[in-house]
Design brief:
about 775 residues; alpha+beta; Ubiquitin-like (UB roll); 16-stranded antiparallel sheet; about 45% strand
Length: about 775
C-alpha cells in the first residue's frame, strides 16, 4: 500500500511538471521519483510573444538552463508571469530537454473613447476608469470600468444610464475601447419617509438631512440625487440631531433607497428608534492625578444638572478639560466621560474621568481621497503633528474643522498600530465635493438708489487650486446702478491660523440730480480667539466722485444749488472728489448651529471704524448688532430670532461730517420705510443721522403645503427703531421712535437668501417715507 501511494504521487507530480507533452517516457518517472521533483533543462524556448522579448520573459520565470527545478519552481514561474499583468494565458511545459514557455499577450489599449455623454465630461469619466492609453487590456478591468462609469452617472442622479463597452482591434496587438453611453433621464427621489419617529415630524427630520425630495427647482439645487455616501452622512446628521436634544438612546435601524425602475424614482426610508429623552443628572470629575483636583476643573465643564442632555455639550466639556489639563503639564492625560443612566427619572449623570494615559505618539499622518485638495490644507487643521503625543480630543477637533471647511462630503479619521508599540498612524479618509459655484441671479429691489430690477453674475471658488483659498468675481447691475467686486482670502496667512484677504470694488449710481462713483479697495485680516470668537482688522481706501446733471452749485460755501437739493448735500458735492482712508476693528461671536438656516445660537458683531489716517474724511463710527436664535417648537419647526443693534458716528479733528458719512435707514434697521426715508430732513431730503438703536422680534415657520425641499419659510415680525442726531444747524431732526409689524416669505435660493416683506408702520412721523413692500437678495447677518 505504501509503495503504491508513492508511485501515484510520483506520476502526478511528473504530469504537473511536464504537462505530458511530447514523447516523454513514463518509465523515467515510474522508477525514479526524485527525477520527477528535480529535473534539469538544457534550453528555454519562448513562444507566442509579440511585444515582450524572450529574455525578459525568461527572467520573469526565474529558471535558468542547466539549473535544477521542480514543480514549485514551475508554479512560481507561472505566478510571476501572470503577476506582470502582461499576459492573458501562460503555459510552462517540458519537451525533451527543452522547457517551453508559451504566453498569450494582453492587447495594448490604443485609445479610450466615450460616446453619447453630455452630463458627464470626458475628463470626469476618464478619471474613473483604470484602462488607459498605452496600458494593457483585460476583460476584468473592462468590466470594472464599465461599472465605474455607471457609478459616475449614479452620483449625478442618472441611475438608469446604459453603458455598453465595445472593443475593436486596430492591429499590432492594439485595441480601442469605446463606451457607448445612453444617459437616460435624471433619477428622482419621489419620497423621503421616516419610520419610528414620534418626537419630531417627518417634515422636521427632512430639514435635518441633506438629501431632498425632487421638485421643480431640483435642477438648481442638485440635492435630490440618491447617493450611498450622502445617505451615510444623513444618518450621522440624524444621530447628532437627536443626541443633542436629549435622545441618548437614539438608533438608526436601517436606511435605504428603493428604486422604482418603471418610474425611475427612489423612495428613501429611514427606520429609527428615538428612545427616551434625558436630562443631565449629577456632574462630577474623577481625577487620578493628585495635582489635578476635580473641583478646580468643574469650571471648565459646559454640562449643567437639569439641562436637556446634549452630546455636543459633553464633547465641548471634554475638549475644554483636555486643554486645561494639558496646560497644566499633563499632555498624556486622557479625559473620558462615563454616563450613568437613571431610566426611571430619565437622567444621565456624567463623570469626567481624568487619568494619566499611556505614552503614545503619532508616527505619521496618512491622507487619502484628496485628489484635488493638497495635503497641507488638510494637515494644517490639526493641532497635532508627526512626533507629537497622541490626543484623541485634538483629533476630534480637527475632524470638526475639516467638516466646517465644506470641501468634503465625508471626513473619517482612524488610527492603526505604528511600527512600535507606542506609535500610532493616523489615517484621514476624505471624499471631496465640488467647491466651485457659477451663479446667475436676478431680483427686484425696492427703496433706495438701487430700486428696480437687477441681475448679478458671480464666479466663486472656495478651494482655489486645491489650496483652500477663497476667490470670488462678481458683477451686478440695476436700472441705475453698476457694481463690480473681486475678493480673495487666504485662510492661513504665513502658515498661521490668520486669514488675510483683499477686496477691490467699483460702484456707480445715477440719481435724479447727480451721479456718484466709488472706487476703492480693502485689505483685511482675521484672527480666531476661540472657537466662537474672532477678531478682524481692515484698512479701506476709496474715492467718491460726484457729477451733477443739468444743474449747478451756485455757492460752494453754502451749497446753494439749482438742483433742488438740500444745501448740505450740495455743499458736500461741491467739495469735489472725496478720499476716505479708514481703519476698521471688529469682533464676531458666532455659536449658530447653521450659517444657512440657523435655529439656535447667537451671532453678534461689533465694529469700530476710524477715518482720517490720510484722506479727506475724519470721523469715527461705532456699530453693533446681535441676533439670538431659538427653536420654539421642535415638532412644528417654529424658530424665533431677536435682533438688537445700534450705532454712532461723529467727526474728529477739524473736518466736519458730510451727509455721505452719516447712517441711512434700511430694512435691516426697520422695515416698512423707504431706504433713507426717516431721520433729519432739509429741503425735503433725508440727510442721514448720527445715532440709531433698533430691535426686532421675528418668528419663522415652514410654509404650509409647499415641500420643505424648496427652502421656503414664512415669517411674522415686529420692528422698532429710533434715530436722531445731526451735525447741521437749522435742520428738522425728526428723531423719536418708529415701529412696524409685518409678514414675510424667505427662500434659501441658489442665488443667496431671498426675502419678500410686507410691513405696516404703526408709529411714524409725518415726514417719513413709507415703503410697505420690499423685495431683495442678501444675507441676514
Amino acid at each position: 500500500m505504501k509503495a503504491s501511494s508513492k508511485f501515484t504521487r510520483a506520476v502526478s507530480a511528473a504530469a504537473l511538471t511536464v504537462g505530458l507533452v511530447g514523447p516523454v517516457s513514463g518509465a523515467a518517472f515510474l522508477f525514479s521519483a526524485d527525477a520527477a521533483f528535480a529535473a534539469v533543462v538544457s534550453r528555454i524556448e519562448v513562444r507566442g510573444n509579440q511585444r515582450v522579448d524572450d529574455q525578459t520573459i525568461i527572467n520573469y520565470t526565474g529558471i535558468r538552463p542547466g539549473q535544477n527545478y521542480g514543480p514549485g519552481d514551475v508554479d512560481q514561474a507561472v505566478k510571476s508571469l501572470y503577476g506582470t499583468g502582461l499576459f492573458s494565458d501562460v503555459s510552462v511545459v517540458q519537451s525533451g530537454s527543452t522547457l517551453v514557455v508559451e504566453v498569450s499577450e494582453y492587447a495594448t489599449v490604443n485609445a479610450v473613447i466615450f460616446r453619447g455623454n453630455k452630463k458627464a465630461k470626458d475628463d470626469q469619466l476618464a478619471a474613473a476608469v483604470q484602462l488607459k492609453p498605452r496600458g494593457t487590456f483585460s476583460q476584468a478591468a473592462l468590466d470594472q470600468d464599465t461599472e465605474a462609469v455607471r457609478e459616475v452617472y449614479s452620483r449625478i442622479g442618472r441611475s438608469d444610464v446604459v453603458v455598453t463597452p465595445q472593443v475593436s482591434e486596430v492591429g499590432n496587438g492594439r485595441v480601442n475601447i469605446v463606451y457607448d453611453i445612453q444617459e437616460g433621464d435624471r433619477t428622482k427621489i419621489a419620497r423621503i419617509e421616516f419610520v419610528g419617529n414620534n418626537a419630531y415630524s417627518d417634515r422636521r427630520l427632512r430639514d435635518v438631512i441633506s438629501t431632498k425630495k425632487s421638485n421643480i427647482l431640483s435642477f438648481l439645487f442638485r440635492n435630490d440625487v440618491y447617493d450611498e455616501n450622502r445617505l451615510r452622512a444623513d444618518e450621522e446628521a440624524l444621530r447628532r440631531f437627536y443626541y443633542n436634544r436629549g435622545y441618548a438612546d437614539f438608533q438608526i435601524v436601517s436606511s435605504d433607497g428603493i428604486l422604482n425602475e418603471a418610474e425611475n424614482e427612489y423612495v428613501v426610508t429611514f427606520a429609527i428608534e428615538e428612545g427616551e429623552r434625558y436630562r443631565f443628572g449629577d456632574i462630577s470629575i474623577d481625577s487620578t492625578i493628585p495635582e489635578l483636583g476635580g473641583q478646580d476643573l468643574l469650571r471648565y465643564v459646559e454640562t449643567e444638572q437639569g439641562e436637556v442632555y446634549s452630546a455636543k455639550d459633553v464633547e465641548d466639556s471634554i475638549l475644554s478639560l483636555a486643554e486645561a489639563v494639558a496646560g497644566s503639564g499633563y499632555v498624556f492625560a486622557q479625559v473620558n466621560p462615563r454616563g450613568d443612566r437613571d431610566v426611571a427619572n430619565r437622567t444621565i449623570s456624567v463623570v469626567y474621568t481624568i487619568d494619566q494615559g499611556p505614552r503614545t505618539y503619532v508616527e505619521r499622518i496618512e491622507i487619502r481621497g484628496n485628489d484635488r485638495t493638497r495635503d497641507y490644507v488638510i494637515r494644517r487643521e490639526f493641532d497635532i503633528a508627526e512626533g507629537d503625543a497622541f490626543n484623541q480630543v485634538l483629533v476630534q477637533r480637527a475632524k470638526r474643522r475639516l467638516e466646517a471647511l465644506n470641501f468634503f462630503e465625508t471626513v473619517n479619521i482612524s488610527t492603526v498600530q505604528g511600527s512600535e508599540p507606542d506609535q500610532v498612524v493616523m489615517v484621514v479618509d476624505v471624499v471631496e465635493k465640488s467647491t466651485g459655484e457659477f451663479t446667475v441671479g436676478g431680483g427686484y429691489s425696492t427703496g433706495g438708489s438701487n430700486s428696480g430690477p437687477s441681475v448679478e453674475l458671480s464666479v466663486t471658488e472656495r478651494n482655489f487650486l486645491g489650496r483652500g483659498q477663497y476667490i470670488r468675481l462678481a458683477g451686478s447691475g440695476g436700472t441705475n446702478s453698476r457694481d463690480y467686486r473681486i475678493s480673495f482670502t487666504e485662510p492661513y496667512f504665513l502658515g498661521r491660523r490668520i486669514s488675510a484677504g483683499f477686496d477691490l470694488f467699483r460702484s456707480t449710481t445715477e440719481l435724479d440730480d447727480y451721479d456718484t462713483a466709488t472706487t476703492g479697495g480693502t485689505v483685511r485680516f482675521g484672527l480666531p480667539i476661540t472657537e466662537a470668537l474672532s477678531a478682524q482688522i481692515g484698512y479701506t481706501y476709496k474715492i467718491d466722485e460726484y457729477d451733477l446733471d443739468d444743474c449747478s452749485i451756485t455757492d460752494s460755501s453754502t451749497g446753494s444749488n439749482t438742483c433742488g437739493l438740500s444745501n448740505f448735500i450740495g455743499r458736500d458735492i461741491a467739495r469735489g472728489d472725496w478720499q476716505t482712508s479708514a481703519v476698521t476693528l471688529g469682533l464676531t461671536f458666532n455659536t449658530l448651529d447653521s450659517i444657512t438656516s440657523p435655529r439656535e445660537g447667537i451671532y453678534a458683531k461689533t465694529e469700530a471704524e476710524l477715518a482720517g489716517v490720510g484722506g479727506d474724511a475724519s470721523y469715527y463710527k461705532l456699530t453693533a448688532r446681535a441676533q439670538y436664535f431659538a427653536l420654539l417648537n421642535e415638532e412644528y419647526d417654529l424658530a424665533f430670532v431677536g435682533t438688537v443693534g445700534g450705532g454712532y458716528v461723529d467727526s474728529w479733528g477739524d473736518e466736519e461730517l458730510r451727509t455721505f458719512d452719516l447712517f441711512r435707514s434700511n430694512d435691516r434697521l426697520i422695515r416698512g420705510f423707504e431706504y433713507n426715508g426717516i431721520g433729519p430732513v432739509d429741503s425735503g431730503d433725508h440727510l442721514g443721522y448720527q445715532a440709531y438703536a433698533n430691535a426686532s422680534a421675528e418668528v419663522t415657520f415652514p410654509m404650509p403645503v409647499l415641500p420643505e425641499s424648496l427652502g421656503f419659510r414664512g415669517a411674522v415680525f415686529s420692528d422698532v427703531a429710533t434715530v436722531g442726531g445731526t451735525p447741521f444747524d437749522d435742520v428738522n431732526e425728526s428723531d423719536g421712535i418708529r415701529a412696524s409689524v409685518g409678514v414675510g416669505i424667505q427662500w434659501a435660493s441658489p442665488f443667496g437668501p431671498l426675502r419678500v416683506n410686507y410691513a405696516e408702520p404703526i408709529v411714524k412721523k409725518d415726514e417719513d417715507e413709507v415703503q410697505r413692500f420690499s423685495f431683495g437678495i442678501g444675507s441676514q447677518f
